[in-house]
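ARCHIVE CARD
SHELF: 3
SLOT: left
DATA:
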Amino acid sequence: MNTRRLQYLILLLILLLAFALRVYRIDASALRGDEAFAVRYWAAPPSEVLQTLAWVEPHPFGTFFGFWAWKSLVGESELAMRMLPALLNLLGVAAMYALARRLRMGTWAALLAAFLWAVNPGLIWHSQDVRNYAPWAGLSAVALWLLVRAAEKQRRIDWLLYVIVEVITLYVFFLEAFMLVVHGLYVLWVAWQGGEKRRDEDAQTAWGSKPHASS
């Protein structure tokens, strides 16, 4: 087995571990108060939510629409409703690996980042909770990876994908706005680094084009 296949196999095992930790006894307890509220009121039909809840709840409409769509698809049992946060949080495992690789941190560092996401107790707990925190974490990690890729490749399609995922993430949890500030600072830093590199290259070109005095 070559190195690339081995690292993908390890990543797959980490994903399976993350899934197992998130679904283990996921329906062992009844919905707690906030979860029951989310299932009853957040996941209500959009027309009902827009008339009442959307104007008083400190959460964006994407959260309500997402839980309503999921409830309409799979039902409202503890297992069914808790699976949405669990599945969306799994995105962070792959995103951490891809982000570390994009930042050239090395294969083992990338796998370690994915593993730490997989076994993080806080993420596991929220992944079994019918709220928007675990989905937000997973989507936010994907958005960050897309940003780093777009800043490096400078392709229109990459920037479009980043914008789409970031907008979805903002509609899941308002606090993503703080991450948006971090994203902006990263883009400025990349632009500054690119300017420094171009100035160095221009200086080297100008120096190389100067005639040298004969000895």
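SLOT: right
DATA:
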Amino acid sequence: MTLLLPASTGLIFLSLFAACDKATQLYYRTDHHWTSDAALLAYQTYNKLWDLMTAPLIPKILSDSFKGTLSASSGLRTSETDEIYAYLPDQATDYTVSLTAENTKSASVFDVQSLSTKSQYNVFFGGNHPEVVIDSASESKKVLMVFKDSYANCFVPFLIPDYARIIMIDPRYYTEDISETIQSNGVTDILFLYNANTAAEDHSLYQLTAQ
């Protein structure tokens, strides 16, 4: 599920049920996250809503030995592994990724060092952070703010060619004035992208957006 709030037009609820092809593995067998295949379906649905073109994407396997949190916590499927994929554009858009709290910058959304740890899903952005800012060479003038949990981490890279700046905010860790952040960055669109359980249970989301 995604909740989309474009600043200019009001609240739109975007349902992904119709896009979920049962032939596609939507969730990892050993983990609670959705797969990059599921995130791709969400991205294609998102682009149809705004009448945007999805550029050709090339799948690349990042890991064939992923064992997620379900396997670790339950002791089940311990002999099974999952594959983690990334979908890379045929023509890449240059961008930089800034982790505000850590005061670091990189030229990739992928943290390949995480692939040698038990938390391989952290290959996307190195895990969760209070604020991540992606500045791209996109021709777009739009600025997107994403209120998110870890489900957004494999989805947001699809959006890089579509926005000049993407600001990812994790309300569980973010403590700054969100209204000031929206104004100072000239945010044009706002996207809420959450695991449904997190959205229902995380009171910090409501406290933050109430600002």
